[in-house]
């Protein structure tokens, strides 16, 4: 009997792209934070309370899990920082991964065993706690750093805020304890600035526009196309390439839109989160792509998996293991494992090519990289490997039927061209708003946000459009991971 992992929430009412968040929760949190700025202990309680309310609204039954996890990891971290014991570190990491494994992978392993041995083991329905993949990685990093002597004696409230801080709690960025607790310590001293508030709201608005204007409008075609191949049908080559391109841009604008809204909402209350995207589709090789895509995940995998495995020693093996586990982290399915394996292979080939010291023209390197990434996203999005292969077959069938058989295709062209133009030609949000200094600006037009009438009108129009879309419940793609 097929089984599935179920995620449940309270109607999705506190999504960043919801009326409840934009008009009620976030303004109240802002007001409370500014009123408590001069009292650090009160500010901690306010933000922790707001974050737990935010998390509990989705499913109150998950609160004991995240609170219990925070208490246990804080205790183990304190012990490890004063008395480093490898056995305690092993126990702590194992406990975190076992909890993640139970909720996220139990059904996958049972289904795999059933398919291999023709058995019919049945596991009761498991509710997947929201954000467990993200707060598990953050706490594993904390335990490892505590064992290495790289943590401070944080108070429990500091640590709890690090684990539960609402802007990045659900889908990242994956933050490091050091970069967050140092900022939390200044909650009672750092004054409110209009610049932080204004820039934060601009970044939040850009993220909201990415989600509602681009990602959500690419979604209908993607859903129909991938559902078609999963049902056993083939598409025309035009439809198949359109589907692959649409998902490639949908995922980027959906996930980077979430990251922008997380960064913007945090900055508005004076906290700077790390950036997660640096125009990854402008990369000219796969190594560069992984320095610019989901940057905080790449940082975690490098520091806590790839380097401990030996780093450059037996590089290909370590890259393959790292990316396979990175794929499995994204989801319990063979498509995610194969996706990780593909990127492990891409990275190994890329490093081998660099050793040959043969320079490709920049445009050719960019094109090869983008095509490789696009094909990997097909596997990532497909519900099964058979569905992915069917889409690949359609892409290379050379059936150039111009008449689309999918209804959403007629609305798709404009948004696909808009997404491509923004991703390939425009600076990213961090560059546009001067949020941080980025070295790579390849293929970007010289455009920067300024507090001028033109930009105010442009953002206001985009915000008004986005607000009209808030009645449509549209979860972020990375919530399922």
Would you kindly provide a written description of the structure presented here, covering whatever features stand out?
Helix content is 66%, strand content 1%. It has 481 residues and is mostly helical. A two-stranded parallel sheet has the order 1-2. Helix 13 runs antiparallel to helix 14. The N terminus is likely disordered.
Report Rg: 23 Å
How widely separated are the two ends?
A: 24 Å
Fraction in helix: 55-70%
Roughly what fraction of the amino acids lie in strands?
under 5%
The helix/strand order is EHHHHEHHHHHHHHHHHHHHH
Question: What's the total helix number?
Answer: 19
Unreliable stretches (pLDDT < 50, length at least 5) are 1-12
User: What topology, given as strand order, has the largest sheet?
Assistant: 1-2
Largest sheet: 2 strands, parallel
Class of secondary structure makeup: mainly alpha
Q: What is the overall shape?
A: globular
Average predicted local confidence, pLDDT: 87
The total count of strands amounts to 2
């Amino acid at each position: 009997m097929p089984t599935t992992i179920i995620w449940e929430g309270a109607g999705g009412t506190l999504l960043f792209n919801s009326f409840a968040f934009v008009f009620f929760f976030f303004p109240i949190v802002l007001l409370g934070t500014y009123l408590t700025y001069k009292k650090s202990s009160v500010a901690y309680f306010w933000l922790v309370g707001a974050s737990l309310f935010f998390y509990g609204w989705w499913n109150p039954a998950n609160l004991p899990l995240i609170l219990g996890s925070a208490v246990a990891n804080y205790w183990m971290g304190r012990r490890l920082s004063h008395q480093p014991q490898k056995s305690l570190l092993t126990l702590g990491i194992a406990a975190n991964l076992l909890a993640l494994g139970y909720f996220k992978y139990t059904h996958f392993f049972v289904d795999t065993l059933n398919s291999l041995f023709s058995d019919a083991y049945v596991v009761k329905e498991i509710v997947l706690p929201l954000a467990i993949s993200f707060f598990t990685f953050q706490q594993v990093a904390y335990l490892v750093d505590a064992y290495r002597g790289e943590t401070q004696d944080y108070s429990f409230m500091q640590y709890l805020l690090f684990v539960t801080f609402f802007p990045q709690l659900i889908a990242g960025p994956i933050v490091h304890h050091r970069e967050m607790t140092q900022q939390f310590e200044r909650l009672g001293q750092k004054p409110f600035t209009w610049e932080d508030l204004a820039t934060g709201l601009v970044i939040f608005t850009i993220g909201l526009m990415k989600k509602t204007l681009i990602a959500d409008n690419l979604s209908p075609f993607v859903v129909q196309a991938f559902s078609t191949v999963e049902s056993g049908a083939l598409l025309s080559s035009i439809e198949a390439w359109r589907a692959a391109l649409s998902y490639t841009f949908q995922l980027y604008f959906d996930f980077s839109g979430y990251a922008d809204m997380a960064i913007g909402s945090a900055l508005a209350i004076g906290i700077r989160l790390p950036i997660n995207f640096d125009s990854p589709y402008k990369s000219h090789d796969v190594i560069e792509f992984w320095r610019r895509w989901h940057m905080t995940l790449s940082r975690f995998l490098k520091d806590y998996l790839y380097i401990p495995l030996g780093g450059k020693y037996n590089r290909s093996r370590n890259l393959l293991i790292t990316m396979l586990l990175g794929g499995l982290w994204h989801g319990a399915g063979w498509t995610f494992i194969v996706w990780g394996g593909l990127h492990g292979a891409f990275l190994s080939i890329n490093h081998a090519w660099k050793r040959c010291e043969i320079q490709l023209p920049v445009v050719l390197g960019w094109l090869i990289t983008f095509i490789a990434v696009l094909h990997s996203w097909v596997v990532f999005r497909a519900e099964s490997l058979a569905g992915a292969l069917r889409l690949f077959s359609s892409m290379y069938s050379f059936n150039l039927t111009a008449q689309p058989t999918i209804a959403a295709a007629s609305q798709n062209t404009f948004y696909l061209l808009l997404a491509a133009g923004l991703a390939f030609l425009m600076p990213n949000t961090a560059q546009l708003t001067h949020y941080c200094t980025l070295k790579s600006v390849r293929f970007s037009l010289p455009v920067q946000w300024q507090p001028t009438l033109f930009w105010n009108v442009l953002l206001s129009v985009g915000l008004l459009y986005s607000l009209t879309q808030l009645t449509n419940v549209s979860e972020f793609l990375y919530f399922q991971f």
